[in-house]
Amino acid sequence: MIKKEMIAMLLAGGQGSRLGVLTAKVAKPAVAFGGKYRIIDFPLSNCINSGIDTVGVLTQYQPLRLNTHIGIGIPWDLDRNVGGVTVLPPYEKSTSSEWYTGTANAIYQNLDYMEMYNPDYVLILSGDHIYKMDYEVMLDFHKENNADVTIAAMPVPIEEASRFGIVITDDENKIEDFEEKPAEPRSNLASMGIYIFSWPVLKEALQELSSQPNCDFGKHIIPYCHIKRRRLFAYEYNGYWKDVGTLSSYWEANMELIDIIPEFNLYEEFWKIYTNSGSLPPQYVSEQSIIEKSIICNGANIYGEVHNSIIGSGVTVGKGTVIRDSIIMSDTVFGDRCVVEKAIIADEVKIGDNVTIGIGSDAPNKMRPDIYNSGIVTIGERTVIPSNVQIGKNTAVSGITSKEDYLGGVLESGETLIKAGGR
User: How far apart are CA 393 and CA 343, in angstroms?
Assistant: First the structure.
C-alpha cells in the first residue's frame, strides 16, 4: 500500500446558482477569474505550493469544462505516477447509483480512493474560493495541538457573522462550540470550509453518518465530532480570502486585481498561481486604442478603449468601442462603437455594432433581484446580441437574441432575456 502523510479532497461539484447565467452551462469552480485563470486554479495551486501532491477533485454539476481544464494536472505539476490529481465524479455502483447529496456524502462515496493512500491526515477544500494559503503551516498547527479536527477560521465583521458557520474557542484556540449560521452569533470567527481531519476520525464519522440524508460537514460531521468529544481546534487565518459566490462579490474580487497595489497579488514569485492556459499569441493593441488600469490577456485585439476592466484571452474590442469597469471572458467579440459599463460578459459572446450595455436607472431585476443586482449587466456564454440595441442595468441576457427581442431596441433595466441556444 502507498503511504501519504496528507491528501487533499477538493469539492468542486457545486452549481453556483447565485452566479445566474454565468453557471448555466459550467460548474462554478470552472468560471474564469482574473482573465486567464479559473476559480479552481487557486486551491489546486495552494496544494502544490504547500507540498501536497495527491488531490482528489470531486465533480458533479456540468463537469466537462472542469475535467478538460484539469486534464492530467500538468500545469500544477500534479501529473504523477503515484498520487497526482484524480477527477472523482459520482459513479454507478453494483447496488445503486447515487449522486453526491452533500459535501460529506461526496467524501464518503470516495472512501476507497482515500484508503488507497492510507493517509495520516485528510485536507478538505472547497473549489470556489479565491485565496493563498500554506496548508503545511495549518498541518503543523494540527499536529502541535494533537488535534482530531482543525478548522481554518477567519475573523469577519460581527454583523455578517450569521451568514457563516461560527466557531467559539478558548484561549488555546480549542473549539468549545460550533454554530451553523446562528441568528445571534457569539463570536466572529467564521469557518472557511477548510478542514484537516486525522484520518481515523474522519473515516469513523463518515461511516457513522453514512445514512444521514444530504450529509454535510458544517451541519453534521463537525457537530458529530464535537458531541463525541474529539479535539477540535480553530486555525486562525488573516490573509486575503474571498468567496466569489455572488455576482457582486465576483465582480469586486476581479476589480480588486487591477488596483495599483492589489490586495491580492497574482504575480508573487514564491507563491505562483498555475493554470492551463494553452499557447496563445501576444496581445495586439492598435495605435488608436486607449488602455487604462486594466488587465489584458494574451491573444486579445484592442482597437477601442478599455478602462478599469479585465479582458480575457482572444477578446476583440472593435473601433470606437469603450469598455469600463467590466469583466470580459475569453473569445468574446465586440463590434464597433459599443459602450459597455459595469458588465460581466462570459466566454464566446458575439456583440454587434452600436450596442450600449449598462445604461438607464438602477431598477431591481424583476425575476431574480437576489442574483442580478448592484447595477451589473450579466451576459451568459455564447450569447449573440444584435447591432443597434441598448441594455439596461441589473439585467441578464443569454442565448441567441435578435432585434425583435428588444422592444424599441431596448432591454429595460431589471429585465431578463433568456433564449434557447447559444452559438
Answer: 9
Q: Which helix (H) or strand (E) holds 46?
A: helix 41-49
CA angle 205, 238, 18 (to 5 degrees): 65
Question: pLDDT per residue over 11-66, tens digit each?
Answer: 987 666 788 888 888 888 889 999 889 899 999 999 999 999 899 998 877 666 77
| Nearest C-alpha neighbor of 19 from the set 6, 32, 8, 7 | 32
Q: Give every CB contact of residue 410 below 8 A, 6+ residues apart in sequence.
A: 389, 390, 391, 392
Kindly report the pTM of this predicted structure: 0.90
Closest by Cα among 165, 163, 362 to 249: 163
Comparing CA positions, the residue from 246, 243, 252, 245 lying closest to residue 342 is: 252
Question: CB of 102 within 8 A of CB of 180?
Answer: no
* Separation between Cα atoms, residue 166 and residue 187, nearest integer Å: 7
Question: The C-alpha cell of 64 is what?
Answer: 466537462
> What is the C-alpha to C-alpha distance for residues 36 and 330, in angstroms, rounded to an integer?
8
> Nearest-CA neighbor of 347 among 12, 14, 73, 26?
26
pLDDT in tens, 231-277: 999 999 988 998 888 899 999 999 999 987 888 887 777 888 888 87
- By CB atoms closer than 10 A (0-12, 13-18, 19+), residue 270 is exposed
